[in-house]
Write a structure and sequence with these properties.
This protein has seven helices and six strands. The strands form three sheets. It has a two-stranded parallel sheet with strand order 1-2. The chain is an alpha/beta fold. The chain is globular.
């Protein structure tokens, strides 16, 4: 399979992986390449899109299966790696099995053995959702 837009890209990895149905998406790519990967995935040309959590959080790209590889993310406020929160995990898993596209979806989380029971417990028990809006109310109002 050869789509001309992909073959014209300067991104060598993207051009090499595309014929096999694989795509990549991260902030270091040119915006036009990221948009192209999003379009190719949504149109079914790509069967696998490897991306950063930012794409899974913010872009509406439904998938049949979602895999979270690693549960540590960098927190700039703390200046350190922190555990991925359960709401973030649920948001990312929410990309899998959208009713209008699939009958069911699959979510897989790959983490260290010592955190396995932690995430399993969080995923199988209901958690209260609490707003964090008030903590940054002044910033939000100033932004408006």
């Amino acid at each position: 399979m050869c789509v001309p837009q992909v073959q014209r890209s300067r991104n060598k990895q993207m051009r090499e992986m595309f014929p096999d149905g694989f795509g990549i998406h991260h902030a270091g790519m040119l915006r036009q390449d990221r948009t192209l990967m999003e379009n190719m995935f949504s149109r079914g040309y790509l069967k696998v899109l490897v991306c950063t959590a930012t794409l899974a959080w913010g872009v509406n790209l439904p998938a049949h299966a979602v895999i979270i590889k690693g549960t540590n993310i960098y927190d700039a406020k703390r200046g350190a790696l922190v555990d991925l929160g359960i709401l973030d995990v649920m948001q990312i898993f929410g990309r899998a099995g959208r009713p209008q596209f699939d009958k069911y979806g699959e979510g897989t989380i790959i983490t260290t053995h010592d955190k396995l029971s932690y995430y399993l417990t969080l995923l199988t028990q209901q958690n209260p959702i609490e707003s964090q809006f008030q903590q940054s109310l002044a910033d939000n109002l100033n932004a408006e």
